[in-house]
Amino acid sequence: MDEGDAMQYLASHGHEKTGNDVIFSWFARYQHAAEAGADAVNGTVGALLEDSGLLAINNVVDEAIRVAPPSEFAAYAPLKGLPAFLDLAVTLALGEHRGVLEGLGLHTGATATPGGSGALFQAASNFAERGDAVLLRDRHWGPYVGFLKGCGLGIATYPLLPTEPSAATPFLDLDGFRTALDGLVQSQGSVMTWLNDPAHNPTGLSLPPESRYALLNAFMESATRNEHTGHTLLLDAAYHLYADEPHGWAETIAEALNAGLPWPENLLICFAISLSKSHTIYGLRTGAVVYLHPEESNVQRLNDVMGVTGRQTWSASPRIAQHVLSELHATPEGGAAWSSERDRLADLLTARRDTFIEACQRHGVAVNPSHDGFFAWYECTDPVAVAEACANQHVYLVPLSGGVRIGLCAIPQSKVERVAEALAKAAEAVE
Fold first, then answer.
1. CATH number of 76-318
2. Is residue 430 within 8 Å of residue 385, measured between CB atoms?
3. Domain boundaries in the chain?
4. This prediction's pTM
5. Which of 166, 180, 300, 421 is buried most deeply by CB count within 10 Å?
6. In which band, very low, low, confident or very high, does the pLDDT at 165 lie, cut at 50, 70 and 90?
Protein backbone atom coordinates (compact mmCIF):
# COMPACT_ATOMS: atom_id res chain seq x y z
CA MET A 1 0.00 0.00 0.00
CA ASP A 2 1.55 3.31 -1.03
CA GLU A 3 1.35 6.49 1.02
CA GLY A 4 -1.52 7.89 -1.06
CA ASP A 5 -3.68 4.82 -0.39
CA ALA A 6 -2.75 4.76 3.30
CA MET A 7 -3.54 8.42 3.93
CA GLN A 8 -6.87 8.97 2.22
CA TYR A 9 -7.70 11.59 4.85
CA LEU A 10 -4.89 13.87 3.62
CA ALA A 11 -6.01 16.33 0.95
CA SER A 12 -4.23 16.28 -2.39
CA HIS A 13 -2.50 19.59 -1.69
CA GLY A 14 -1.34 18.18 1.65
CA HIS A 15 0.55 15.41 -0.14
CA GLU A 16 2.68 18.11 -1.77
CA LYS A 17 4.08 19.20 1.59
CA THR A 18 7.20 17.08 1.84
CA GLY A 19 10.79 17.38 2.96
CA ASN A 20 12.57 19.19 5.77
CA ASP A 21 13.46 22.85 5.87
CA VAL A 22 16.94 23.08 4.37
CA ILE A 23 18.14 25.69 6.89
CA PHE A 24 17.15 23.61 9.90
CA SER A 25 18.56 20.41 8.41
CA TRP A 26 21.99 22.02 7.95
CA PHE A 27 21.77 23.52 11.43
CA ALA A 28 21.18 19.98 12.73
CA ARG A 29 24.35 18.83 10.96
CA TYR A 30 26.30 21.58 12.70
CA GLN A 31 24.82 20.55 16.06
CA HIS A 32 25.75 16.90 15.54
CA ALA A 33 29.33 17.85 14.65
CA ALA A 34 29.66 20.15 17.66
CA GLU A 35 28.22 17.52 20.00
CA ALA A 36 30.75 15.04 18.65
CA GLY A 37 33.55 17.38 19.70
CA ALA A 38 34.42 19.03 16.40
CA ASP A 39 35.56 22.64 16.31
CA ALA A 40 32.57 23.46 14.12
CA VAL A 41 31.49 26.83 12.74
CA ASN A 42 27.76 27.57 12.63
CA GLY A 43 26.82 29.73 9.64
CA THR A 44 23.35 28.28 9.25
CA VAL A 45 20.86 29.99 11.53
CA GLY A 46 18.98 33.23 10.94
CA ALA A 47 19.17 34.53 14.50
CA LEU A 48 21.84 36.87 15.84
CA LEU A 49 24.27 35.17 18.19
CA GLU A 50 26.88 36.75 20.43
CA ASP A 51 30.52 35.82 19.81
CA SER A 52 30.09 33.37 22.68
CA GLY A 53 27.52 31.46 20.64
CA LEU A 54 24.62 32.43 22.89
CA LEU A 55 21.51 34.06 21.46
CA ALA A 56 21.98 37.84 21.36
CA ILE A 57 19.37 39.60 23.49
CA ASN A 58 18.41 43.27 23.57
CA ASN A 59 18.53 43.56 27.34
CA VAL A 60 16.33 46.67 27.43
CA VAL A 61 13.51 44.74 25.74
CA ASP A 62 14.07 41.68 27.90
CA GLU A 63 13.89 43.68 31.13
CA ALA A 64 10.73 45.50 30.02
CA ILE A 65 8.96 42.24 29.19
CA ARG A 66 9.84 40.65 32.53
CA VAL A 67 8.14 43.40 34.55
CA ALA A 68 4.97 43.62 32.43
CA PRO A 69 1.66 43.01 34.26
CA PRO A 70 0.41 39.40 34.18
CA SER A 71 -2.77 40.49 32.42
CA GLU A 72 -0.70 41.68 29.44
CA PHE A 73 0.66 38.16 29.06
CA ALA A 74 -2.67 36.43 29.48
CA ALA A 75 -5.23 38.64 27.75
CA TYR A 76 -6.21 38.64 24.11
CA ALA A 77 -5.11 41.57 22.02
CA PRO A 78 -7.70 43.31 19.83
CA LEU A 79 -8.07 41.44 16.53
CA LYS A 80 -6.31 44.21 14.58
CA GLY A 81 -3.75 44.89 17.31
CA LEU A 82 -3.30 47.32 20.18
CA PRO A 83 -3.77 50.89 18.85
CA ALA A 84 -0.50 52.10 20.36
CA PHE A 85 1.38 49.22 18.76
CA LEU A 86 -0.17 49.90 15.36
CA ASP A 87 1.01 53.50 15.60
CA LEU A 88 4.48 52.26 16.55
CA ALA A 89 4.52 49.86 13.58
CA VAL A 90 3.92 52.76 11.18
CA THR A 91 6.75 54.71 12.81
CA LEU A 92 9.11 51.73 12.65
CA ALA A 93 8.34 51.39 8.94
CA LEU A 94 8.67 55.07 8.02
CA GLY A 95 10.93 56.51 10.70
CA GLU A 96 11.57 60.24 10.61
CA HIS A 97 9.89 60.46 7.19
CA ARG A 98 6.44 59.60 8.53
CA GLY A 99 5.38 63.20 9.07
CA VAL A 100 6.61 64.20 5.62
CA LEU A 101 4.67 61.42 3.91
CA GLU A 102 1.49 62.14 5.82
CA GLY A 103 1.96 65.82 5.03
CA LEU A 104 2.15 64.92 1.35
CA GLY A 105 -1.31 63.39 1.55
CA LEU A 106 -0.61 59.72 2.28
CA HIS A 107 -2.75 57.88 4.80
CA THR A 108 -1.26 55.07 6.84
CA GLY A 109 -2.70 51.96 8.43
CA ALA A 110 -1.40 48.84 10.12
CA THR A 111 -2.55 45.46 11.39
CA ALA A 112 -0.68 43.34 13.93
CA THR A 113 0.50 39.95 12.72
CA PRO A 114 2.34 36.97 14.21
CA GLY A 115 5.78 38.09 13.08
CA GLY A 116 6.87 39.23 9.66
CA SER A 117 5.67 35.90 8.31
CA GLY A 118 2.13 36.86 9.27
CA ALA A 119 2.49 40.10 7.32
CA LEU A 120 3.64 38.14 4.27
CA PHE A 121 0.66 35.82 4.60
CA GLN A 122 -1.70 38.80 4.79
CA ALA A 123 -0.27 40.12 1.53
CA ALA A 124 -0.35 36.75 -0.22
CA SER A 125 -3.89 36.15 0.95
CA ASN A 126 -5.34 39.50 -0.08
CA PHE A 127 -3.36 41.27 -2.81
CA ALA A 128 -3.19 38.69 -5.60
CA GLU A 129 -5.79 36.58 -7.38
CA ARG A 130 -5.53 32.82 -6.99
CA GLY A 131 -3.48 31.43 -9.85
CA ASP A 132 -1.48 34.63 -10.31
CA ALA A 133 2.29 34.90 -10.02
CA VAL A 134 4.05 37.25 -7.61
CA LEU A 135 7.23 38.94 -8.78
CA LEU A 136 10.40 38.16 -6.79
CA ARG A 137 14.11 38.53 -7.34
CA ASP A 138 15.62 35.22 -8.40
CA ARG A 139 17.56 35.04 -5.14
CA HIS A 140 15.06 35.20 -2.30
CA TRP A 141 14.15 33.75 1.07
CA GLY A 142 13.02 30.20 0.32
CA PRO A 143 9.81 30.23 2.44
CA TYR A 144 8.39 32.92 0.14
CA VAL A 145 7.52 30.14 -2.27
CA GLY A 146 5.64 28.22 0.42
CA PHE A 147 3.65 31.25 1.56
CA LEU A 148 2.62 31.95 -2.02
CA LYS A 149 1.90 28.36 -2.95
CA GLY A 150 -0.26 27.94 0.14
CA CYS A 151 -2.39 30.83 -1.11
CA GLY A 152 -2.70 29.37 -4.61
CA LEU A 153 -0.05 31.65 -6.11
CA GLY A 154 3.01 31.10 -8.25
CA ILE A 155 6.17 33.14 -8.72
CA ALA A 156 7.86 35.05 -11.50
CA THR A 157 11.42 36.30 -11.12
CA TYR A 158 13.95 38.78 -12.41
CA PRO A 159 17.74 38.68 -11.82
CA LEU A 160 19.08 39.85 -8.47
CA LEU A 161 21.96 41.68 -10.17
CA PRO A 162 22.34 43.10 -13.67
CA THR A 163 24.68 41.39 -16.11
CA GLU A 164 26.30 44.76 -16.80
CA PRO A 165 25.93 47.03 -13.75
CA SER A 166 24.90 50.59 -14.44
CA ALA A 167 26.24 53.55 -12.53
CA ALA A 168 22.69 54.92 -12.42
CA THR A 169 21.15 51.77 -10.93
CA PRO A 170 23.82 49.74 -9.16
CA PHE A 171 22.73 46.39 -7.75
CA LEU A 172 19.42 46.49 -9.66
CA ASP A 173 18.50 44.79 -12.95
CA LEU A 174 16.02 47.49 -13.89
CA ASP A 175 15.46 46.15 -17.41
CA GLY A 176 14.82 42.68 -16.01
CA PHE A 177 12.37 44.09 -13.49
CA ARG A 178 10.46 46.06 -16.12
CA THR A 179 10.31 43.12 -18.52
CA ALA A 180 9.00 40.75 -15.85
CA LEU A 181 6.51 43.31 -14.58
CA ASP A 182 5.20 44.04 -18.07
CA GLY A 183 4.74 40.33 -18.65
CA LEU A 184 2.59 39.99 -15.54
CA VAL A 185 0.56 43.10 -16.36
CA GLN A 186 -0.30 41.62 -19.75
CA SER A 187 -1.53 38.35 -18.28
CA GLN A 188 -3.03 39.25 -14.87
CA GLY A 189 -5.65 41.58 -13.46
CA SER A 190 -3.36 42.55 -10.59
CA VAL A 191 0.37 42.42 -9.94
CA MET A 192 2.34 42.27 -6.73
CA THR A 193 6.08 42.28 -6.12
CA TRP A 194 7.86 41.39 -2.89
CA LEU A 195 11.16 43.18 -2.30
CA ASN A 196 13.25 42.26 0.73
CA ASP A 197 15.22 45.48 1.11
CA PRO A 198 17.33 46.74 2.80
CA ALA A 199 19.53 43.94 4.18
CA HIS A 200 18.29 41.29 1.78
CA ASN A 201 18.02 37.68 2.91
CA PRO A 202 20.01 35.71 1.74
CA THR A 203 22.67 38.09 0.35
CA GLY A 204 22.90 41.12 2.63
CA LEU A 205 22.44 43.37 -0.40
CA SER A 206 20.84 46.81 0.09
CA LEU A 207 19.70 48.99 -2.78
CA PRO A 208 21.22 52.50 -2.80
CA PRO A 209 18.97 55.55 -3.25
CA GLU A 210 19.33 55.68 -7.05
CA SER A 211 18.22 52.09 -7.44
CA ARG A 212 15.31 52.48 -5.02
CA TYR A 213 14.07 55.51 -6.92
CA ALA A 214 14.40 53.81 -10.31
CA LEU A 215 12.45 50.75 -9.19
CA LEU A 216 9.72 52.81 -7.53
CA ASN A 217 9.43 55.03 -10.60
CA ALA A 218 9.12 51.99 -12.88
CA PHE A 219 6.40 50.52 -10.67
CA MET A 220 4.46 53.79 -10.45
CA GLU A 221 4.71 54.29 -14.22
CA SER A 222 3.35 50.79 -14.79
CA ALA A 223 0.42 51.48 -12.47
CA THR A 224 -0.29 54.75 -14.29
CA ARG A 225 -0.20 53.11 -17.73
CA ASN A 226 -2.37 50.21 -16.58
CA GLU A 227 -5.04 51.93 -14.53
CA HIS A 228 -7.30 48.87 -14.33
CA THR A 229 -4.55 46.60 -12.98
CA GLY A 230 -3.89 46.70 -9.26
CA HIS A 231 -0.23 47.20 -8.34
CA THR A 232 1.10 46.24 -4.90
CA LEU A 233 4.71 46.81 -3.83
CA LEU A 234 5.44 44.94 -0.62
CA LEU A 235 8.70 45.86 1.10
CA ASP A 236 9.84 43.06 3.39
CA ALA A 237 11.51 45.04 6.17
CA ALA A 238 12.53 42.11 8.36
CA TYR A 239 16.11 43.36 8.81
CA HIS A 240 15.76 47.07 8.03
CA LEU A 241 16.62 48.35 11.50
CA TYR A 242 20.12 46.85 11.14
CA ALA A 243 20.77 48.71 7.87
CA ASP A 244 22.73 51.90 7.28
CA GLU A 245 19.56 53.40 5.76
CA PRO A 246 16.79 51.78 7.81
CA HIS A 247 14.11 54.08 6.42
CA GLY A 248 15.51 54.58 2.96
CA TRP A 249 12.32 53.46 1.27
CA ALA A 250 10.23 56.01 3.13
CA GLU A 251 12.73 58.67 2.09
CA THR A 252 12.56 57.49 -1.55
CA ILE A 253 8.74 57.55 -1.56
CA ALA A 254 8.79 61.09 -0.21
CA GLU A 255 11.36 62.10 -2.82
CA ALA A 256 9.18 60.70 -5.61
CA LEU A 257 6.10 62.55 -4.39
CA ASN A 258 8.04 65.79 -3.96
CA ALA A 259 9.30 65.38 -7.53
CA GLY A 260 5.71 65.31 -8.73
CA LEU A 261 5.38 61.62 -9.56
CA PRO A 262 1.65 60.83 -9.43
CA TRP A 263 0.38 58.17 -7.04
CA PRO A 264 -2.29 56.34 -9.04
CA GLU A 265 -5.27 54.98 -7.13
CA ASN A 266 -4.43 51.42 -8.23
CA LEU A 267 -1.07 51.55 -6.42
CA LEU A 268 -0.59 50.22 -2.87
CA ILE A 269 2.69 50.17 -0.96
CA CYS A 270 3.04 47.92 2.08
CA PHE A 271 5.75 47.13 4.61
CA ALA A 272 6.07 43.74 6.28
CA ILE A 273 7.43 44.60 9.73
CA SER A 274 9.13 42.07 12.00
CA LEU A 275 10.08 42.75 15.60
CA SER A 276 11.85 39.39 15.84
CA LYS A 277 15.26 40.63 14.78
CA SER A 278 15.14 44.30 15.68
CA HIS A 279 13.96 43.61 19.24
CA THR A 280 15.35 40.03 19.61
CA ILE A 281 11.96 38.52 20.45
CA TYR A 282 11.77 35.83 17.77
CA GLY A 283 9.54 33.51 19.75
CA LEU A 284 7.00 36.15 20.74
CA ARG A 285 5.87 36.34 17.09
CA THR A 286 5.24 40.04 16.80
CA GLY A 287 5.01 41.98 13.56
CA ALA A 288 2.69 44.05 11.42
CA VAL A 289 1.65 44.81 7.88
CA VAL A 290 1.76 48.58 7.27
CA TYR A 291 0.09 50.12 4.22
CA LEU A 292 0.19 53.52 2.51
CA HIS A 293 -2.37 55.05 0.16
CA PRO A 294 -3.62 58.58 -0.62
CA GLU A 295 -7.29 57.61 -0.09
CA GLU A 296 -8.24 57.37 3.59
CA SER A 297 -11.28 55.24 2.77
CA ASN A 298 -9.00 52.67 1.10
CA VAL A 299 -6.85 52.44 4.20
CA GLN A 300 -9.92 52.00 6.40
CA ARG A 301 -11.14 49.22 4.13
CA LEU A 302 -7.76 47.53 4.33
CA ASN A 303 -7.97 47.66 8.13
CA ASP A 304 -11.17 45.62 7.89
CA VAL A 305 -9.77 43.16 5.35
CA MET A 306 -6.63 42.54 7.39
CA GLY A 307 -8.59 42.17 10.60
CA VAL A 308 -10.96 39.61 9.10
CA THR A 309 -8.06 37.66 7.56
CA GLY A 310 -6.30 37.50 10.91
CA ARG A 311 -9.47 36.46 12.70
CA GLN A 312 -10.02 33.64 10.23
CA THR A 313 -6.40 32.47 10.39
CA TRP A 314 -4.72 32.99 13.77
CA SER A 315 -7.42 34.92 15.64
CA ALA A 316 -5.50 37.69 17.43
CA SER A 317 -1.73 38.18 17.39
CA PRO A 318 0.12 37.81 20.72
CA ARG A 319 -0.44 40.76 23.03
CA ILE A 320 2.54 40.95 25.36
CA ALA A 321 5.17 42.36 22.99
CA GLN A 322 2.66 44.76 21.45
CA HIS A 323 2.07 46.24 24.89
CA VAL A 324 5.68 46.26 26.07
CA LEU A 325 7.19 47.72 22.90
CA SER A 326 4.59 50.43 22.49
CA GLU A 327 5.22 51.44 26.11
CA LEU A 328 9.00 51.26 25.66
CA HIS A 329 9.04 53.43 22.55
CA ALA A 330 6.51 55.90 23.96
CA THR A 331 9.24 57.79 25.82
CA PRO A 332 12.47 59.27 24.43
CA GLU A 333 14.41 57.51 27.21
CA GLY A 334 12.97 54.09 26.34
CA GLY A 335 13.56 54.51 22.64
CA ALA A 336 17.13 55.68 23.21
CA ALA A 337 17.88 52.74 25.51
CA TRP A 338 16.56 50.26 22.94
CA SER A 339 18.49 52.02 20.19
CA SER A 340 21.75 51.82 22.15
CA GLU A 341 21.37 48.07 22.53
CA ARG A 342 20.37 47.71 18.88
CA ASP A 343 23.50 49.64 17.87
CA ARG A 344 25.65 47.28 19.93
CA LEU A 345 24.19 44.29 18.11
CA ALA A 346 24.49 46.01 14.74
CA ASP A 347 28.18 46.62 15.44
CA LEU A 348 28.67 42.85 15.81
CA LEU A 349 27.28 42.35 12.33
CA THR A 350 29.30 45.18 10.81
CA ALA A 351 32.58 43.86 12.27
CA ARG A 352 31.89 40.33 11.02
CA ARG A 353 30.90 41.52 7.55
CA ASP A 354 33.97 43.74 7.20
CA THR A 355 36.24 40.91 8.29
CA PHE A 356 34.52 38.44 5.97
CA ILE A 357 34.67 40.64 2.88
CA GLU A 358 38.33 41.47 3.51
CA ALA A 359 39.18 37.80 4.08
CA CYS A 360 37.34 36.74 0.93
CA GLN A 361 39.31 39.29 -1.07
CA ARG A 362 42.59 37.90 0.27
CA HIS A 363 41.56 34.30 -0.43
CA GLY A 364 40.14 35.04 -3.88
CA VAL A 365 36.54 34.17 -2.99
CA ALA A 366 34.11 36.10 -5.22
CA VAL A 367 31.21 36.71 -2.83
CA ASN A 368 28.28 38.84 -3.91
CA PRO A 369 27.96 42.48 -2.85
CA SER A 370 26.81 42.49 0.78
CA HIS A 371 26.04 45.61 2.81
CA ASP A 372 23.71 45.08 5.77
CA GLY A 373 21.83 42.63 7.90
CA PHE A 374 22.41 39.03 8.86
CA PHE A 375 23.80 37.32 5.75
CA ALA A 376 26.31 37.16 2.93
CA TRP A 377 26.12 35.11 -0.26
CA TYR A 378 28.41 33.01 -2.45
CA GLU A 379 26.97 32.52 -5.94
CA CYS A 380 27.80 29.12 -7.46
CA THR A 381 26.46 26.52 -9.86
CA ASP A 382 26.49 23.61 -7.39
CA PRO A 383 25.54 24.97 -3.95
CA VAL A 384 25.14 21.57 -2.31
CA ALA A 385 28.61 20.46 -3.40
CA VAL A 386 30.14 23.70 -2.12
CA ALA A 387 28.29 23.41 1.21
CA GLU A 388 29.39 19.77 1.54
CA ALA A 389 32.99 20.74 0.84
CA CYS A 390 32.75 23.37 3.58
CA ALA A 391 31.11 20.88 5.95
CA ASN A 392 34.08 18.57 5.40
CA GLN A 393 36.08 21.38 7.02
CA HIS A 394 33.45 21.67 9.77
CA VAL A 395 32.15 24.97 8.43
CA TYR A 396 28.38 24.67 8.08
CA LEU A 397 26.53 26.96 5.65
CA VAL A 398 23.20 26.71 3.82
CA PRO A 399 22.93 25.69 0.15
CA LEU A 400 20.04 27.43 -1.59
CA SER A 401 18.99 27.93 -5.18
CA GLY A 402 21.91 29.54 -7.00
CA GLY A 403 24.36 29.80 -4.13
CA VAL A 404 25.34 29.35 -0.52
CA ARG A 405 24.07 31.55 2.31
CA ILE A 406 26.60 32.58 4.95
CA GLY A 407 24.93 33.40 8.26
CA LEU A 408 27.23 36.13 9.55
CA CYS A 409 24.68 36.65 12.31
CA ALA A 410 25.76 33.35 13.89
CA ILE A 411 29.50 33.23 13.20
CA PRO A 412 31.82 34.44 16.00
CA GLN A 413 34.25 37.15 14.94
CA SER A 414 37.17 34.82 15.70
CA LYS A 415 35.91 32.24 13.20
CA VAL A 416 34.97 34.46 10.27
CA GLU A 417 38.38 33.95 8.63
CA ARG A 418 37.83 30.18 8.67
CA VAL A 419 34.66 30.59 6.63
CA ALA A 420 36.50 32.48 3.89
CA GLU A 421 39.24 29.85 3.90
CA ALA A 422 36.68 27.02 3.69
CA LEU A 423 34.89 28.68 0.76
CA ALA A 424 38.20 29.15 -1.06
CA LYS A 425 39.06 25.46 -0.71
CA ALA A 426 35.51 24.44 -1.62
CA ALA A 427 35.53 26.62 -4.74
CA GLU A 428 38.84 25.14 -5.85
CA ALA A 429 37.54 21.60 -5.34
CA VAL A 430 34.08 22.03 -6.85
CA GLU A 431 33.85 24.90 -9.32
1. 3.40.640.10
2. yes
3. 10-57+336-430, 76-318
4. 0.95
5. 180
6. confident
